[in-house]
C-alpha cells in the first residue's frame, strides 16, 4: 500500500465523530502509523461531544479556532485558540462549543484512535 507521509487537511478522510466532524490526517489507514494518530475536529456552535473516556488512549487537543469549554473528570475550563489540553487515559471528558463560530481543534492520540476504545457515559 502507498502510505502518505505528508497529508494536507484537504486530503484527510472526513468522518462523523462524537465531537462533530473529524478529518483523519495521520493514522494506520492514511499513513501506516502504528503508535499515534492525528485529526482535525470541527464542532458547530452550541454543539458538544458526548461524555466519554478511553481505556487505552491518551489524547492531546490543541485549539486552533473558536472557544468553548472542556470538562475533564470534575474540572471544567474555558478554552480558546492557543490552548493545549491533556486528556489522560481513563479521564471522563466532554468538549463544548460555546462560541458563535466553528470550534476547530487538533486531536493527537496514542495509541492511534480506535472507535472501540470510546466508552460513552
Report the structural category.
mainly beta
SSE order: EEHEEEEEEEEE
* Strand fraction: over 45%
What is the CATH fold-level name?
Answer: Jelly Rolls
**How many DSSP-defined strands?**
11
Strand order of the largest sheet: 1-2-3-10-5-8
Helix content percent band: under 10%
Mean pLDDT figure: 95
Instruction: Assign the CATH architecture.
Output: Sandwich
Low-confidence stretches: none
What's the helix count? 1
Q: Please, how many domains?
A: 1
- Rough outline: globular
Architecture blueprint of SSEs:
Elements: E1 13-17, E2 20-26, H1 28-31, E3 37-43, E4 52-53, E5 58-65, E6 67-72, E7 75-80, E8 84-87, E9 93-97, E10 103-110, E11 119-120
Antiparallel strand pairs: 1-2, 2-3, 3-10, 4-11, 5-8, 5-10, 6-7, 6-9
Protein model, in words:
By secondary structure, the chain is mainly beta. It has one helix at residues 28-31, and strands at residues 13-17, 20-26, 37-43, 52-53, 58-65, 67-72, 75-80, 84-87, 93-97, 103-110, 119-120. The chain has a 6-stranded antiparallel sheet. Strand 6 and strand 7 form a beta hairpin. The longest helix is centred in the first third of the chain and has 4 residues, at 28-31. It is globular and about 40 Å long.
Amino acid at each position: 500500500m502507498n502510505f502518505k507521509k505528508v497529508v494536507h487537511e484537504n486530503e484527510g478522510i472526513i468522518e462523523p465523530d462524537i465531537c462533530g466532524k473529524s478529518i483523519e490526517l495521520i493514522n494506520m489507514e492514511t499513513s501506516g502509523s502504528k503508535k499515534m494518530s492525528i485529526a482535525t475536529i470541527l464542532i458547530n456552535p452550541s454543539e458538544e461531544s458526548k461524555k466519554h473516556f478511553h481505556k487505552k488512549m491518551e489524547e492531546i487537543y490543541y485549539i486552533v479556532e473558536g472557544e468553548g469549554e472542556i470538562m475533564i473528570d470534575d474540572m471544567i475550563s474555558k478554552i480558546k485558540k492557543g490552548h493545549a489540553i491533556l486528556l489522560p487515559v481513563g479521564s471522563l471528558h466532554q468538549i463544548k462549543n460555546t462560541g458563535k463560530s466553528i470550534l476547530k481543534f487538533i486531536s493527537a492520540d496514542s495509541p492511534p484512535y480506535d472507535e472501540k476504545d470510546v466508552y460513552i457515559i
